[in-house]
Specification:
Blueprint: H1 2-34, E1 38-41, E2 46-49, E3 57-62, E4 65-71, E5 81-88, E6 92-94, E7 101-105, E8 110-112, H2 115-123, E9 130-133, H3 142-149, E10 154-155, H4 164-170, E11 174-178, H5 187-192, E12 197-200, H6 208-212, H7 215-222, H8 225-246, E13 255-258, E14 260-262, E15 265-267, H9 273-281, E16 285-286, E17 298-300, H10 301-310, E18 313-315, H11 324-330, H12 338-342, E19 345-347, H13 368-379, E20 393-394
């Protein structure tokens, strides 16, 4: 009996060692890589870091640390609220922020959602830190695509389709994921797997410069705040100068619709409040929707067809449509659109990556002044004489 008990005890001990020892070793490796920060330092005074256009996050200096709050101010969804306390590696985190996710900076290994996040990190010269992307086919950066082909960057999936096994194997310092307060948000599940989520909701901003200002969010995680601010400031100055030069230079705003029909619903796919601001600043009048929130963007097909008959311009139709004939192949009723009859249909695929994917949603968002100039050339060509469109092109029959 005693011998049998010793045998059972030995088996239990061996099971414990097999289960726990790898976790202890993993924790040790992770701790060494993450340069852990010490908590409990004396609370220090917060100093606001002013943001000019972004409304979905705030930044404050807390001594040598940075406090970031993610906020979705309003909209159809419940909204999100999240706090990050970014602490330079080896330093002590100040007290008073028990609800903040503490992240040692600069981060060295990250995962991203879509191409715009990749573009911003690339602008900060930290492309080598990206170990995973949500959808490879939606990421055009040639370096990332090369690394994906070589197995050096993995496809993680997105939202409810995110592959948690892949994420755990990557073990990023931070996993940048899109968030909007909807049921498809994945950050809680990531936390439960021991992965820090970096919530990004730039797509909910109300101004294209608000979208671009998120580069300052990324800059803080990499300790490259100055570089991020310089990038944003330069683009903002160019945009504001162009906007001021065309403002009040036209007597009439031509009407415009955005998007296309899919599965019986008209989708404006990405034409949220920030894109509507693009149209306004370019001197056009968006007439497809009456709401000022432009969030989920579903529009009834019947309404879109009715409005489309009257609208003078149609921009951003189906992303892979090359000609107006392609669009008519989707729905013959488009032939009654005023824009189709007059040839005033423009797609944003004039500049593409090698695989044919448009650069508009990636590099285009990094230079909003160029996008604005293209749109001014579409609606009021006389205000930018001689301009050759970079991202947009008129669709031929």
């Amino acid at each position: 009996m005693e011998k049998q008990m010793r045998f059972v005890s030995f088996r239990i001990m061996r099971a414990v060692l097999v289960t726990v020892l790898p976790l202890l070793l993993l924790a040790g490796c992770r701790q060494e890589r993450e340069r852990p920060v010490r908590r409990g330092a004396k609370r220090v005074v917060e100093q606001e870091i002013p943001l000019r256009y972004a409304r979905c996050f705030t930044m404050k200096k807390v001594g040598s640390c940075t406090l970031i709050e993610i906020r979705k101010p309003k909209g159809a969804r419940l909204g999100v609220f999240y706090r990050y306390l970014l602490v330079p590696g080896g330093e002590t985190a100040p007290s008073g922020y028990p609800d903040a996710l503490v992240v040692a900076t600069p981060v060295r290994k990250v995962t991203c959602g879509l191409g715009l996040q990749v573009a911003m990190i690339g602008q900060l010269d930290r492309i080598e830190s990206i170990a995973g992307v949500g959808m490879g086919k939606w990421t055009g950066n040639p370096e990332i695509r090369r690394k994906m082909a070589a197995g050096e960057v993995l496809e993680t999936g997105m939202s409810a389709d995110m592959n948690m096994e892949t994420m755990v194997n990557i073990d990023p310092d931070i996993a940048f994921v899109y968030s909007s307060g909807s049921d498809t948000d994945i950050h809680d599940k990531l936390l439960s797997m021991g992965i820090r989520p970096g919530l990004v909701c730039m797509h909910l901003e109300e101004h294209p410069l608000g979208v671009l200002e998120w580069i300052r969010f990324f800059g803080a995680f990499y300790g490259r705040e100055k570089e991020a601010e310089a990038c944003f400031r330069s683009a903002a100055e160019r945009y504001e100068k162009l906007e001021a030069s065309v403002k009040d230079s036209f007597s009439v705003r031509p009407t415009v619709i955005v998007g296309h029909a899919t599965r019986g619903i008209w989708t404006t796919h990405g034409s949220s409040a920030w894109f509507i601001r693009f149209l306004h600043d370019a001197g056009a009048r968006y007439i497809l929707e009456e709401s000022g929130e432009y969030e989920e963007n579903p529009v009834s097909l019947e309404h879109a067809l009715k409005v489309g008959i009257e609208a003078e311009y149609w921009v951003n139709p189906r992303y892979n449509a090359k000609t107006i004939t392609d669009l008519l192949g989707d729905d013959k009723r488009y032939q009654y659109f005023s824009s189709v009859k007059s040839g005033k249909v423009f797609n944003n695929d004039n500049l593409t990556f090698d695989d044919g994917r448009t650069l508009f949603w990636e590099t285009g968002m990094m230079e909003p002044d160029e996008v604005l100039r293209d749109l001014v050339a579409i609606f009021h060509p006389g205000l930018v004489p001689g301009h050759r469109m970079k991202y947009y092109r008129r669709m031929m029959p």
